Amino acid sequence: MARFRSLWQASLNATKRALSWNLEDSMLPTERLVSSFNSKDSISLQQLGSIRRYAGPFARSKLQLDGVKDVIAVASGKGGVGKSTTAVNLAVALANKCNLKVGLLDADVYGPSVPMMMKIDRKPDITEDKTMIPIENYGVRCMSMGFLVEQDAPIVWRGPMVMSALEKMTRGVSWGKLDILVVDMPPGTGDAQLTITQSLQLSGAVIISTPQDVALLDARRGVKMFSKVEVPILGFIENMSCFKCPHCGEPSYIFGKGGTRKTADSMGHHFIGEIPIEVDIRTCSDNGTPIVISSPDSGVSQAYCEAARSIVKKLEELAKGTTFQPEINL
């Protein structure tokens, strides 16, 4: 009986060790270190540096695109907040107003909208080494799943096929020399988003939200996802901030007022700016001419340009290590 009990205890201990190892192995390096701190402890900047050094192998496993200086994600927690419209106009503003070499990756596999918004209706050329050449318009080099399928064809794919497509559009494209690659992320925080954030070396993420509470709740989830994979938040942009009457100019705050700024402040992140609702944004997007190009002197166009300049400044600050000093409270 004693021998049986001894064997049973040994088996139990071995099982516990195996389970413990598997759990530990499934965690990101940062999670493993952070989990060792007591929940009431606060991690100092010095300890944060240790986390980043410890997480180095994970960071190094991400793809650094040849010739691309910075990769930024334009993301939203939910669909319908104007993320793609913002991504397109930011990319065009960065290229035409900030005089940068810019690429635009449409990573929204199920709902690619870059082809229409950028007025591109042809397939990309393929090089001898089987890589795709992005298609350029308005000074921006673009790649989208929409280039490879018919305009109204549904993309009915399961997760693994989507992951494979994203892999091809990141690793299988000859972007050339770029100052910034703008990634129009799919909405939400699922497999596709994790694939991109864990495979690309992102310089930062821009969070797009409308002012209402439902959108802001999902935006918070998006921020936490990026924090989980150690991607800095460049800031929040509030889209559809208000509607200005075309006759009297009086603003109407259809979705609420100032919610995105308050959320950014409460989470300790930069608020980039507001983009109002304008009919011209919709008509320009449908016509394939971004409003930054079609109406460069309009108020909303100027708002996009100011947002682009703010993002460039934030990237420069991050590169110098002057502003990204997060404080983690456990």
Explained architecture:
The chain is an alpha/beta fold. The chain has two domains: 13-57, no CATH class; 65-322, Rossmann fold (3-Layer(aba) Sandwich). Helices cover 44% and strands 18% of the residues. The chain has 13 helices and eleven strands. It has helices spanning 2-26, 29-34, 45-54, 56-60, 83-96, 114-117, 159-171, 191-199, 213-228, 259-266, 279-287, 291-294, 299-320, and strands at residues 42-43, 68-75, 102-106, 135-137, 140-144, 178-184, 204-209, 233-244, 251-252, 271-277, 328-329. Strands 2, 3, 4, 5, 6, 7, 8, 9 and 10 form a nine-stranded mixed β-sheet that branches. Strand 4 and strand 5 form a beta hairpin. Helix 5 (83-96) crosses helix 13 (299-320) and helix 7 (159-171) runs parallel beside helix 8 (191-199). The longest helix has 25 residues, at 2-26. The radius of gyration is 22 Å and the shape is globular.
Key descriptive features of the protein:
13 helices, 11 strands, globular, disordered C terminus, two-stranded antiparallel sheet, 330 residues, 2 domains, 18% strand, single chain, 9-stranded mixed β-sheet, alpha/beta, Rossmann fold
Concise structural overview:
This protein has 330 residues and is an alpha/beta fold. It has helices spanning 2-26, 29-34, 45-54, 56-60, 83-96, 114-117, 159-171, 191-199, 213-228, 259-266, 279-287, 291-294, 299-320; strands spanning 42-43, 68-75, 102-106, 135-137, 140-144, 178-184, 204-209, 233-244, 251-252, 271-277, 328-329.
